Amino acid sequence: MEILLIVIVALLLIIAVVVVFNFLGNRKLRQAEEDALRHRAYRPGDPFSTADDDAVRGDPRQLKPGDLVELRGETFAVRGTLRLTQGGYVWTENFLDTGTGRKAWISVEDDPDLEVVLWHELTGVTLTPGPQSLELDGRRYSSDESGGADYTSAGTTGLAPRASMRYHDYEAGDERLSFEDFGSGWECARGEVVERSEYRIYPTDPTPGQ
User: 107, 141, 128: which is closest to 188 by C-alpha?
Assistant: First the structure.
């Protein structure tokens, strides 16, 4: 009888220890989950960051020659990339080609939010940049910014590997009008802002920054 009592007491002690450890373990797990949630909710960061979309649809800031861009139902190859710098400000312009005769440019900049613009070159335009507003095909564009930048060229762009350029940009809502001079006079292009859901990037090398 005494032995049985000792066994019962020992079992009760073991059960008590297990219950206590389970309670402490569950409480620690709940605390860790609460801390993680609090960290995600209150950690310093940009609430409008595109990092989540970039992880799913590709980061347009990392575009480079050889990448593919699925844009509004068409697949383009990136043939060349210009990286432009003005002071500490950096943006890129990427030459796209379907391989079937359709060509375009896509610019990418953070100003401060990510803005991607699809550009098509215009020919026969007699407008000259400079005025505060310009009218083209019944649309009035207001001057946005102008200046000069240094650039480096990779892939096929038709430009020197490294040089400088001038630009003058105009805008009208989500439409853009740009004049650029790479040393042979002003070239004109018309663009429109592209929404994040309208394109997807397939990098040749998935490693960021490569």
Answer: 128
